[in-house]
Design goal:
The protein is an alpha/beta fold. Helices cover about 40% and strands about 10% of the residues. The chain is built from 14 helices and 12 strands. It starts with a strand and ends with a helix.
């Protein structure tokens, strides 16, 4: 008798390669399981002898079979297989052109001045609601929130030139360089996901729709495949921006879900569940659907969400920017009005590091008003080095008695309610410790905001030819070693870019 447990992994922002998230998470879960002497743990890799000519690695199977399975036998001889699949989307919409770089900087420096993206019109939008908090209040961009966006843009603009100069110096002295473009790529994924205009992405099938449709397509196809595998129970583990994509898949309407599938996958779903809509869509609704409806679907065709999520027992979000999206782009993270479709044992666990600038609590997702369950909010210090906290949530650190990944492994293996660490500590902070960590985070940003321009001044002083230095000092009152010069200059740039783009957006809206 074997208990089959499925795990769907949704990676976050960055340059994640195919199968990389499966290998990373499965490795850490395996290490944590092996630490239990009563368990016998074995790894199964489903691979193929097929591969591209000249390949340096063997190909893993990713369609009909799970690429990686952890086989666990307990002391009573009972066997559990934890099978991993992934919704991989890192290849969608990548562009390193000069135009994309300029567009990114204009977007990032103007975030503080943007209007909320509130209303998105599509054929089944009446089934969705904007995010709200426990008091049914819709999120607003406050003055404090705009100030936070402005300060972050300000500091990023100060950091990037210094990183570029450091990269040049390290390349000359030590033979390697920093990657200042990584920050652009990370934030660029967020820009890409909220973009409304169609883009020339690598997701060719979504050429006339917003880029996030391609990401959702990958997510929803995998949700359907997970349901078709008939696991005893299955889970979703999603990180960073991947939590927004996973949430979109879980909340999508029953009428729109089939639109993301290809015809062969739809036929497999029909064999699994042949339920139809009680009231079929009108032709007008079909024309206004998002994404476009394939011609081989009838107006009454749906994917019943109760059937789709029948064995889904849990959603784990970690390092999630969902609430940040709720404030700035609430129309992108709308809530389905019917959340009674999940099984009684389903639970949503949201883990956040107080020092993580991306992750946070899901304060605007009150699912209880729509027949669902509230997320369980858990604070966890993922990494001692604060600026690395966002990418270390599921790392199995042997020096920690109760790392998060150990609790996740137990959750997947047992099928019981998720249990955080049995007692609060600096690794699993209480309210006072969380406040301390938040203060440390702001302190780091303030230090960087002063230290970086000071270092920048030193670099410029060292690298400028003496003739230019003399020219500057004789004809201006500017002190190139004064960090206030760079702080003030960057602030002016952020204010001007944000103000001009807001005026242009308002003028375009009036026209």
């Amino acid at each position: 008798m074997v208990t089959r447990v499925g795990v769907l992994l949704v990676h976050g922002i960055g340059e994640t390669k195919k199968f990389e998230i499966i290998e990373e998470v499965a490795r850490n879960i395996t290490i944590s399981l092996k630490a239990n002497p009563s368990l016998t743990v074995r790894i199964i890799i489903n691979s193929s002898d097929n591969g591209a000519r000249g390949s340096s690695q063997q190909t893993w199977i990713a369609d009909e079979e799970e690429p990686v399975i952890i086989e666990v036998r307990d002391g009573r001889g009972e066997v559990t297989e934890i099978a991993f699949r992934e919704a991989w989307w890192a290849d969608i919409g990548k562009s390193d052109s000069l135009q994309s770089q300029i567009a990114f900087w204009l977007w990032g420096l103007s975030l503080w001045s943007r209007k909320q993206f509130i209303k998105s019109k599509f054929g089944t939008s009446d089934e969705m609601m904007p995010p709200t908090n426990v008091n049914s209040e819709k999120p607003q961009i406050t003055i404090g929130g705009r100030w936070s966006f402005l300060v972050v843009s300000w500091i990023v603009l100060l950091i990037m030139p210094t990183l570029s100069l450091l990269s040049i110096l390290l390349r000359q002295v030590l033979g390697f360089a920093l990657r200042p473009d990584i920050l652009v790529q990370y934030l660029g994924d967020i820009k890409h996901y909220q973009q409304e205009q169609p883009a020339r992405t690598k997701a060719f099938e979504d050429i006339d729709e917003p880029p996030r449709v391609g990401v959702r397509r990958r997510i929803i196809k995998e949700l359907v495949k997970m349901s078709l595998r008939n696991y005893d129970r299955w889970y979703i583990l999603s990180h960073s921006l991947g939590t927004v994509a996973a949430f979109n898949g879980l909340m999508e309407t029953e009428a729109a879900l089939p639109n993301y599938l290809n015809e062969s996958l739809w036929k497999k779903w029909q064999q699994h569940s042949s339920k139809k809509a009680v009231v079929k869509l009108s032709d007008e609704q079909v024309r206004g659907m998002f994404p476009r409806r394939p011609v081989w679907l009838q107006n009454e065709d749906i994917i019943d969400r109760a059937d789709l999520f029948a064995n889904l027992h849990g959603l784990l979000t970690y390092g999630s920017p969902l609430s940040k999206f709720a404030v700035v782009w609430p129309a992108i993270v709308t809530i389905n009005k019917n959340n009674s479709v999940f099984c009684p044992s389903f639970e949503w666990i949201n883990v956040y590091d107080p020092t993580d600038p991306v992750g946070g609590e899901t304060e605007f997702f009150n699912l209880e008003n729509f027949g669902g369950t509230q997320p369980v909010e858990i604070a966890y210090k993922a990494e001692g080095i604060h600026l690395l906290s966002h990418v270390e949530y599921l790392t199995c650190n042997p020096k920690r008695p109760t790392p998060l990944v150990k609790q996740v492994a137990s959750w997947l293996l047992s099928g019981k309610t998720f249990q955080p660490a049995p007692q609060k500590s600096w690794g699993w902070p209480d309210e006072n410790q969380k406040k301390f960590y938040v203060g440390v985070r702001y302190g780091i940003w303030l230090i960087l905001g002063w230290l970086i321009p000071w270092i920048l001044g030193l670099f410029i002083n060292w690298q400028l030819p003496d003739a230019i230095k003399k020219l500057i000092t004789q004809n201006t009152n500017l002190d190139i070693l004064n960090p206030l010069l760079y702080i003030a200059g960057s602030g002016v740039i952020v204010l001007v870019v944000g103000g001009v783009l807001r005026l242009l957006a308002d003028r375009s809206a009036k026209q």
